[in-house]
Amino acid sequence: LLVQAAREAITRIDHAVAELRLQVDGQLPSVGVGTVEHGIRTGLLTEALRALQGAERDHKAPDAYVEVRVHQLTSSAALIALRERTVDVAVVSTRPPAEHKDLSSVRLVQDPLGAALVPADAPFAGARPAGHAVPIRALSQLPLIVVPEHADPLVRARRDAALAAVGMADTPRREAGDESAALAMVGAGLGWLLVPISCTTGRVAVPAGVHACPLVDFQLPFGLHLVWRRNDHRTAVDCLRRALRYAADQQNRRAAAEPHA
Questions:
Q1: Which residues of 228-256 are buried (b: 16+ CB within 10 A; e: fewer)?
Q2: Which residues pair with 104 in a beta bridge?
Q3: In the chain, how long is the greatest CA-to-CA distance?
Q4: CB-side neighbour CA atoms (13 Å) of 151
Q5: Quick count: other Cβ atoms within 10 Å of Cβ 30?
Q6: Neighbours of 201 (CB within 10 A)
Q7: What is the DSSP string of 55-68?
Q8: 94 φψ region: left (φ > 0), alpha (ψ -120 to 50), beta (else)
Q9: pLDDT digits (tens, 9 = 90+) for 50-103
Q10: Using CA atoms, how far apart are residues 122 and 52, in angstroms rounded to an integer?
Q11: Quick one: angle between helices 235-257 and 2-24, nearest 10?
């Protein structure tokens, strides 16, 4: 234990010296973050970067001067990039496997998959889709739109199992190349999207021609987790982690204050 503690202390000193050299040379420490698309759409990353800029501007944290590189990735790709040191922190929808002892993680926000984005004029047998809760089987009239390139295998498997449990295993599927294409397909009446409940609260922008409906009988646990390398003690990385946790705390407080559907 003493040897391990000594190694960690030496690593911290090495990182601090390297960052000090960068500042002396007039360079900013660079930190890469790999995030799933939901971390961007919900404004979590934007709020974290604003908090980071505010700390710099107010000179409350001199070590907050950081150059941040943002990469939109799937959870699987972000965890691979983290272990390969392409990015330094990851915002993902699934925790890293237990065998990855070199990674640490903490939950940022909980945002269950419990809503659907549907065409504004969808006739759900008398149901009113404009913000009104609908049973998920009412959506069987439309194909489910999926984005294979952005789907994490674990989340996809859990989604398919949950749909099968409510009798929608045979729901027809339509594939979209990316999130923008999927939203356009919904607006054109070509199908529906399963999305987190935050899409019904106004926290996530919904395009014209699309309505967000809470689902009365379907909710699949989903959220965002912050992951980083356990032995990465750089001040710049710690600063970004703190900014992301601060942004998540702010979002969680606002979510707790919102009326429940």
A1: bbeebbbbbbbbbbbbbebbbeebeeeee
A2: 228
A3: 69
A4: 19
A5: 12
A6: 17
A7: HHHHTS-GGG--EE
A8: beta
A9: 988 875 555 454 444 678 999 998 888 899 999 999 999 999 988 888 888 899
A10: 42
A11: 100
Q: Which residue has the tokens 């980071």?
A: 52
Q: Which helix (H) or strand (E) holds 256?
A: helix 235-257
The predicted pLDDT at position 81 comes to 95
Q: 103-110 and 223-229 as β-strands: parallel, antiparallel, unpaired? A: antiparallel
pTM for this structure?
0.76
Q: In the structure encoding, which two tokens stand for residue 174, read together? A: 């339509």
In angstroms, the CA 37 to CA 39 distance is: 5
Token pair in block for residue 178: 């990316």
Q: Which of 65, 47, 17, 39 is nearest to 179 (CA)?
A: 39
